[in-house]
Design goal:
mainly alpha, 1 helix
Length: about 80
Amino acid sequence: MVVVSAFTHLLPYIACTAYPIILTAMNKEIHNTHSLIIDNKRRQLSTMRHGALQTMMTQTSLFQPWTRLVIIQKKHSVT
C-alpha cells in the first residue's frame, strides 16, 4: 500500500518529465513529415512549371514558322 501511495504521489512529477520527452520525440517526427510534404509539393510545382514551359515552347515553335512565312511574304511583296 505504501508503494502504491508513493507511486501515486510521484505520478505528476513523472508525467511532468515524460511529457517534454514525448513531445520532443513527436516534434522530430512532425518536422520530418512536414519536410517530406514540402519537398513533394516543390516537386509537383516544378513538374507543373516544366509542363507549362514545355507547352509554351511547343506552341511557340508551331507559331514561329507561320510568322516567318508572313515576314518572308511581306519582304517579297515590298520589293
